[in-house]
Write a structure and sequence with these properties.
It is a single chain. The protein has 352 residues and is an alpha+beta fold. Helix content is 26%, strand content 32%. Strand 2 and strand 3 form a beta hairpin. Helix 5 runs antiparallel to helix 9. It starts with 9 loop residues before the first strand and ends in a 7-residue tail after the last strand.
Length: 352
């Protein structure tokens, strides 16, 4: 099929009336893990976000959006999709160009654009965008019938490791704002100062933390103190700022650990499946395992009766094998293996 010409496509601001048509073009996207159906109406109300639809013959054929973050100097592109019958006909390029043109003209303070993609972004993207960071993705299915048993299995698999750490604590937002002003350091946990929260790459500035407060993200923190050290006789004793790293004889200073749990939301399939995203920050495997368990247990409290969970964990690549082992025997959910953050610098702020 030949590419559609621009006059055949009309780009308009997305409205509440477009919702059903956007659902129709999104069917089956992201292997059934699409977040947009639940978030669409909230996105419409977000003053930091712009949303667009492409229409052909009066019908919605594509969608795109961007969110202003980092205090208004960065835009994150999100939600791009094209209807099945229009794919491969140039529609994505048309709506993306309109989105970027609008961004440049209406938001001149924006100096960079970010986006996240699955493994191996196409060359057309890599020609423009610089990879910033990547994380391993591990997706597992926890069925409603087996959920209680599966949590008990996880408990048993990390019971010996939990004694090595002070219990992680869930934070309220008064604590979140001061999180990195104490012993916890951004440079130790967040490569490039990035919080990649459910595919949204943002820095830890106050404006972003204020935005996240509305999203009800669960912050779980292990501080770099009150850890334990193994004595010569094999027993454990507490010593400030020392922790076991792995199971070998060597010991290194424990730099802390952080995880973010996104509130679960039902899948568009309507069969009781709920998606849970857990973003992990840090490289200590025993601590990562504890955080996964605690985030899961907290999420289950809000799970409707008879509901099941598709749990998606994002972690540093060095943790992949260990976390996969923790979840050994849990049915995999086939999705993607890697999350890649890309950035395009469009203006040097120091030269303006």
């Amino acid at each position: 099929m030949s590419a559609l010409s621009a006059p055949e496509i009309q780009i308009l601001p997305a409205t509440a009336a477009d919702y059903e048509e956007i659902l129709a073009i999104s069917e089956g996207i992201y292997t059934g893990l699409d977040y947009l159906p639940l978030r669409y109406h909230a996105w419409l109300k977000d003053p930091q976000r712009r949303m667009f639809v492409a229409k052909s013959e009066g019908k919605v054929v594509a969608f795109d959006s961007f969110l202003l973050v980092d205090g208004g100097i960065t835009a994150v592109l999100q939600g791009l999709r094209v209807g099945l019958t229009m794919r491969g006909r140039g529609v994505a390029g048309i709506i993306q160009k309109f989105t970027l043109d609008t961004l440049h003209s209406d938001h001149p303070d924006v100096i960079r654009i970010r986006l996240t993609r699955m493994k191996d972004p196409p060359p057309a993207i890599l020609d423009k965008y610089q990879p910033l960071h990547s994380k391993a993705v591990i997706a597992k299915y926890l069925s409603a019938d087996e959920l209680e048993k599966e949590l008990m299995v996880l408990e048993s698999r990390i019971s010996s490791e939990r004694q090595h750490f002070s219990p992680p604590v869930f934070l309220d937002y008064s604590e979140v704002h001061g999180l990195f002003s104490g012993p916890l350091k951004e440079e130790d946990l967040l490569p490039g100062r990035f919080l990649i929260q459910a595919w949204l790459p943002i820095i830890t500035c106050k404006a972003n933390l204020d935005l996240m407060q509305h999203w009800r993200v669960r912050w779980l923190c292990s501080y770099p103190c009150d850890a334990v050290h193994k004595k010569a006789d094999g027993s454990m004793s507490k010593e400030d700022n020392i922790s076991v790293s792995g199971t070998g004889p060597s010991f290194v200073a424990f730099k802390g650990f952080l995880s973010l749990g996104t509130p679960m939301f039902p899948m568009p399939s309507g069969d009781g499946k709920h998606r849970l995203d857990i973003d992990l920050f840090g490289t200590d495997l025993p601590c990562a395992k504890i955080h996964v368990l605690l985030q899961l247990k907290e999420a289950v409290k809000a799970l409707p009766s008879g509901g099941s969970i598709i749990c998606i964990i994002y972690a540093e690549e060095s943790l992949r094998d260990g976390l996969t082992g923790l979840l050994d025997g849990f049915p995999p959910f086939l999705w993607c293996r890697e999350q890649v953050v890309l950035e395009l610098v469009i203006k040097d702020r120091t030269s303006t």
